[in-house]
Amino acid sequence: MRLNFDFSPAAEYIDGMNMSPICLDKISKGLLLSLLLAVQGIVPASAETILPPEASFFEETFGDMPDELSIVADENKKALLIMFETDDCPWCMRMKQTVLNRQRVQDYFKEHFRIISLNAEGGAPIVDFNGQDTSETKFALKLLRVRATPVFAFFSADGELLTKYTGTTKNADDFLLLGEYVVGDHYKQGKFSKYRRAHSSNKAS
Description:
- The strands form two sheets. A four-stranded mixed beta sheet has the order 2-1-5-6, with helices on both faces.
- The protein has 205 residues and is an alpha+beta fold.
- Helix 4 packs parallel to helix 6.
- The protein starts with 28 loop residues before the first helix and ends with a helix.
- The protein has helices spanning 29-39, 65-74, 90-98, 103-112, 136-144, 172-183, 192-204, and strands at residues 79-85, 113-119, 125-127, 133-135, 151-155, 161-166.
- It is built from seven helices and six strands.
- The protein folds into two domains: 1-47, no CATH class; 65-192, Glutaredoxin (3-Layer(aba) Sandwich).
- The radius of gyration is 23 Å and the shape is globular.
């Protein structure tokens, strides 16, 4: 495909777009180039792939935790990742709309983890890791004392808590770093905040 760009003052309109006259003196050539590429359907290789809402980050679950752990073992996953959320949690929604819907995030986490979501204030019946009947809320409080959401908790195939993270991450890269922290067993050496600082230092040097 060949694109012809006219950066002369006379080029006031962009083909195919219903726009008012543009003063090119106030728009950088780089911005105009990006806009024209978007109009032509050309996406830079570094562009983030954002998945539609139906491409869920989570697997369907019947709330049977021993069964979930069996799936982790059978599929040779690193851990069971449970996101504890609530219906009115803006930070949970932020994670879903800015991080968990990224293609690279879903690809990495689904490769290494069995992922489910539980409502920390929900009354749905579940079976805990010990095979006892309980509810989502009681499970969240008894297991992790969840008081704020979101909480991302990682459990081994034996039901052992490996680590947990409360709150939002800075961005998709930061959440991927959290995944690498668990996959690489770095949680055994220290907290995620320390691992994050070390990774940032190494990247800067």
